[in-house]
Amino acid sequence: MCDVYRVLEEDGKYYIRLELDGKPIYLTFSANEIVLHSKELYEMVSREEIDDCSPLGILDEIFYIMLYQLGTKRTQLFLEFDNLFDLITSGKLKDSKRIILLRRRILTNYSDSTVIYYVSRRLSKFLTSETVEDVKFNYERAELLVTRSGDLYNIYLTEVQNDLNEIIKKLTSISFIFMPITAVASIYAVDFTNVYNTLINWQSLIFLSPVLILTVLLVIYLRRIKWL
What we know:
Blueprint: E1 7-10, E2 13-20, E3 23-29, E4 34-36, H1 39-46, H2 55-89, H3 97-122, H4 129-189, H5 195-199, H6 202-224
Helix pairs in contact: 2-3, 2-4, 3-4, 4-6
Pfam family, one: CorA
Membrane topology: Multi-pass membrane protein
GO molecular function, one term: magnesium ion binding
């Protein structure tokens, strides 16, 4: 069958292209017959017990089969989205590969839902009003998932930035510990040859005591707030 873009009408026949997981599914429909050109679609339809085996009845059933497949996949994607959101906010997600993969699958589901929505509008006169409404609902849910997933990467980047800020704060605080020591070392470096004699002087010990106490207090404080 030649490639068609969703719906092509010619002499009362409709050449239809649906999509599932991004793969095309073809069928031809008219008031007198319906022909399934895709093996996957034929297998899905043959597993169902169809009460109305007329072309209209089969067409309606095909739409519900597709909606069931899309809805099942979308429900799974929603669950994966929530799980990934929890991993991001808890800081357990270490890279963006899973976000990119999930986003790609969500966009595929949205594309499939867009196709069947477009087809349902073109064939609305052959479908029940309930079927048309269900297709519209499916499209809106897929659109909502796309919108939510668009924020997922931004949330991830925000969490990464927060982690980096936390690391910078810790490194800055740790550097404070060495500042008093560096200051004292610079003072004694002026008279390096007499450092030993200077250090054993009791006046030097008194001078160093506040520095040592401050260093110890900083270490205790940083350990208490879990920055060391």
